[in-house]
UniProtKB/TrEMBL annotation:
Coiled coil: none annotated. GO terms for biological process: polysaccharide catabolic process. This is Glycoside hydrolase family 5 domain-containing protein. It comes from the Eukaryota. It comes from Panagrolaimus davidi.
Length: 186
């Protein structure tokens, strides 16, 4: 019905893959009655961190991707290896939430781990979305991109960016986001 809509179902499940899979299959069938071709992104066990588990028994439906969440200062080599297992098993992964700090949204920005994650995602053509625009009850200041009080009129001023926001901005500005067959980039 709306081809540009991505559906993400079950944010950060805390149960086993068979339970998530059963739920997702039912919800996918309902979504497909109105949106037969949209991409549906399915949460994975352990707060959407175990895409490797889902890769061992994927959902047999079309246009499905699997959610990966990570926080660079907490989730390092082990989770990157689990992600590579999923990729090597052919699982389509979409990083619908990541942060440059720890899993609580606090601490220092982990530049090296952030770069390692971005490299893994870029090398495997995985889309990723940074968590947290403004500090709030749901977004601690460390993981937010902007400091409190930033407005639509001041959002382009780098003095309103947090250390995480500055790092993410540098990354996005340095990444070719689109290439076509004519050699043009945007």
């Amino acid at each position: 019905m709306y081809p540009h809509v991505l559906f993400e179902i079950w944010n950060e499940p805390k149960c086993s893959w068979p339970i998530v899979k059963s739920y997702a299959e039912n919800v996918i069938d309902l979504i497909r009655t109105n949106s037969p071709n949209n991409i549906i992104i399915v949460g994975t066990p352990t707060y959407s961190q175990r895409v490797d588990t889902a890769s061992l028994d994927p959902i047999a439906k079309s246009n499905i991707a699997y959610t990966l969440h990570y926080y660079a200062a907490t989730h390092k080599g082990t989770q990157r290896n689990q992600t590579l297992t999923a990729i090597n098993n052919g699982l389509p992964v979409f990083i619908t939430e990541y942060g440059t700090v720890d899993a609580l949204g606090a601490g220092e920005v982990d530049v090296n781990s952030s770069i390692a994650w971005w490299n893994l995602a870029d090398e495997n053509k995985i889309s990723y979305v940074n968590w947290g625009v403004f500090p709030s009850d749901a977004t601690p200041p460390g993981s937010a991109a902007f400091i409190a009080g930033t407005t639509n009129l001041t959002i382009n001023d780098p003095t309103n960016w947090t250390p995480s926001g500055k790092l993410v901005n540098q990354k996005y500005l340095s990444t070719v986001q689109y290439t076509n067959n004519f050699g043009c980039t945007a």
